[in-house]
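Async update (no meeting this week)

Hi team, since we skipped the sync, here's where things stand on the single-chain job. The sequence we agreed to prioritize is pasted below, unchanged from the tracker. I ran it this morning and attached the output directly underneath so nobody has to dig for it. Comments welcome in thread, and please keep replies under the output.
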Amino acid sequence: MRRSAAVRAVVVTGLLVAWPLPSDARTPGAGPSASAQQDHADHQEPLSPPPEAPIEPTRDHPTASPASPADRAGLPPVTDADLAAAFPDVETHLAHGTAVQYFVLFDQLEWRAGRSGGGASWDNKGWVGHDRDRLWFRTEGETTDGRLDTGQVHLFYGRAVARWWDVVAGVRQDVRPGHPQTWAAVGIQGLAPYWFEIEATAYLGASGRTHARLEAEYELLFTNRLVLQSLVEVELFGKSDPERGIGAGLSTIEAGLRLRYELRRELAPYLGLTWTRMFAGTADFARAAGRDVGNARLAAGLRLWF
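Output:
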């Protein structure tokens, strides 16, 4: 009897151990229950929504492309009439480079005073034409005690050959000193590196006379209105001309400093200092005539353009 009771106890215990427990039952040492796992899942970040399903082709969208914002908002499609109203034709102006333009500059319009007396002086240049082809002119001269000492007029045809450079060719007429004289001329002018303005001109006159002139100008801006202009001009002649007091070789060098204040861009009074020196045969002719071969003078004048 005792053995039968022990066997029954063992069988019952085995059945209890092998019998499956409910899913929500909790036993010591086991992991969290399903309800606890659900509570933890409620505090986790939501997963990203699944991608939208592709749009099925329809009559309005045969290619099944996504709807535009205008379509989703119910706006009508843009028509050719709408585009024409949004971008109307405007009246065009004359293309740059075909209109006739002009420019006139009085670079020097001044009174000079020195040991040898005082007098007026001017240096004027300008052009009229297009961007590439222009008619250039220059005039310059000087008076002493109301008498015209020197006077020249240049007339050139100019052709732009580079961004900042023109080739010029034409004639020059000397009014004074001596009898009037005409020269054929060819040269180049423009803006060199470091903002130096250059004019280099060669002349051929009667009886095989030759003349070359080089002019260099530089402007230093202290402010937008206060400008210091420096200018150097060198002249050389191939033959002597006693009637005009000109010797062969290096004839004269003239340098000047002019400080101007631009009341407007096109109008500027200035004060300056000029220095002139004669060399070689020209200096010999000056000494023979009792004139100074070099002198310095104060200058006051206006610079204007239009």
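Quick observations from my side:
Residues 15-19, 21-47 have pLDDT under 50 and may be disordered.
The longest strand covers residues 101-114.
Reply here if anything looks off.
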